[in-house]
Amino acid sequence: MKNLCHLLAAALLVFAVETAKAEPMLTSWGEKVTPGNAWRGYPRPQMVRANWTNLNGEWDYAVTSVTNTPGRPEKWDGKILVPFPIESALSGVGRLLRPDEFLWYTRTIEYDPKPGERILLHFGGVDFRTMVFIGHNEVTDVPHEGGQNPFTLDITDYVKKGENQLTVCVWDPTEDFVNSRGKQSFNPSGCFYTRVSGIWQTVWMETVPEKHIKSYKVFTDIDNGTVRFEFDKVEGAGEVEVSTDMPKDFECWSPENPKLYNFTAKYGRDVVKGYFGMRKIEKRKDEHGYLRFFLNNKPYFMIGTLDQGWWPDGLLTPPSEEAMEYDVKVLKDCGFNMLRKHIKVEPQQYYAMCDRLGILVIQDLPSGTGSSGDPMKSETVKRYWLQRQEMKEMMDDLQPFTSIVMWDPYNEGWSQPGEFLTHSMLDFTKRHDPTRLVNGPSGCWDWEGGHLLPEGWKWEKRVLTQHKPDGVCEAADTVDMHLYRGPTMFAVGDRRISFLGEFGGLGHPVPGHLWKEPKDGKGNWGYGGIKDTKTREGLEKTYLGLMDKLGRLAECGLGGSVYTQTTDVEIEINGLLTYDRKVLKFNPEVLRKAHAEVIRRGLEGSFK
Q: Which residues have C-beta within 8 Å of that of residue 199, sequence separation ≥ 6?
């Protein structure tokens, strides 16, 4: 019977793949995408070099069976537009990839070797396991695993002068042991969406001297007016020479004043350019005794949205940099000062844009599967090594970006492996990056203290966890409530900031801009329901009612809040924007005024 069930599941999956079509909904930016203009900008704005080549554009692709593939395909299925995933409309394919299939890419690259130089091949993101070949030779010593973090290969010893054949082989089980699955699903519904496979961020090459800078971290100290860099170098000894344009009377970076300073680093013949912001984030008690976020030594109320970063035409891949910028500008126009990047890692251009435009970022670790009802399942423990590895890689890759102020390792119990390993992850995060705060766990299974947990795994019977004794580590900086509609909060305490990590979710359908048109009035939904928010007037009235309640909580010590969400996503209709970004459901002036009042009440209120 078990084998029959497996065969039936496989047959249904084949049917889903064969009947899948490219998504019909396009954004205005997606409508303009061509092989010649797809993601042409420099992909690493924090570490810019002059000599680089963009490899985005049309590649040949093929899909073969995992079990009987003899080697590199001899025939190719057609063209795919990199960096859009194969399941997306903008890839030109729109085909679901099965776990029992390999996805292959190939194209030629040109190389003109020069003495004393190395050539690096960069992948911004490939989901999930990646093998890379130059001609017959594999250049990945160990296949790269991880769907959302960038990786780099030195291909100098494999390429020859002139044309070389670059081939990439990807396997993506989507679920199983994968940690960085996020919200991808074989059966999209509710808050789980169409899966993504293969290359989904920019592929590019650059030539560097043998002696070069590999990466760096930046540490700013606004109290002493200093900035310090730590460089990871390749080959040779010697110091890195750094020059900046920061004056003695520098300005601190904030959402209200996103001031950035440029730097140039020289290491031998290697020259890289970047930037930094003078910014300090911490938790501290305000004059009323409430533990709050402090930005640049001043109390700061964070008010933002849950930002999924999904697109109807590119799925996880935004159609363009301009498209990403539009989302953040809308949030700024509506008076938000923060966003929570929800279980996704964006292209690095995104975080540079947040730095430039001025918005705080709470960055989630993309999660894997796992039950929020029972964090002790063995599958979460099996995944823990990869989880820690991806957390470290994400923090290291994004460390230089000023706008990121808090890491969020766990969301609602997904992939959360029990009390000991949860604390170990939070503690590691805190130690590995002392320049930022640590959230949560967000919305579930918080043994650090001050959070409601089910007793005996029963949600109807919940108890409040006790804070640790003085001198015993509580690794997180917040105790994070999720409640729809809400808003509400956990009691303020002396160890961690009371934070509202998710609330709202008011549903509002906009006909003509829905991923799926409803049948018999069903098929689209919002976390907070749609009964009183079907009309625009009802939506605004209900939202302003939530803001009034939120202001009261801010007066009582709430440190910040995250409204769900920036945009509609597939059948979720609780966004400020429709999924195609063509309709803003609110008057931004009304929201800006309401949010300013919440912030004022949070910073001036003294109701204890």
A: 82, 83, 85, 105, 123, 125, 126, 168, 170
282-604 CATH pick, 1.10.3720.10, 3.20.20.80, 3.40.50.960, 1.20.210.10? 3.20.20.80
- Give the span between the Cα atoms of 353 and 318, in whole angstroms: 14
pLDDT over threshold 60, residue 11: no
In Å, how far are 54, 118, 194 from 36, measured between CA atoms? 11, 27, 26
Q: Which residues of 152-174 are buried (b: 16+ CB within 10 A; e: fewer)?
A: ebebbebbeeeebebbbbbbbbb
Dihedral of CA 331/336/342/347: which sign? positive
The domain limits of the chain are 282-604
**Contacts of residue 71, Cβ cutoff 8 Å, sequence gap at least 6:** none
Cβ 388 vs Cβ 428: under 8 Å: yes
pLDDT for 521 beyond 70: no
Residue pLDDT, tens place only, 74-107: 999 999 999 999 999 999 999 999 999 999 999 9
SS3 (DSSP) at 498? strand
| Burial label, 247 (beta-carbon count in 10 A; 0-12, 13-18, 19+) | exposed
* Verdict on whether the full-model pTM lies above 0.90: yes
Question: What pLDDT is stored for residue 24 in this prediction?
Answer: 73
Whole-angstrom distance, CA of residue 426 vs CA of residue 429: 5
CA 84/CA 347 separation, integer angstroms: 12
% the chain with pLDDT above 70: 93
Nearest Cα to Cα of residue 366 among 410, 327, 405: 410
Look up tokens 């042991």; give the residue. Answer: 177
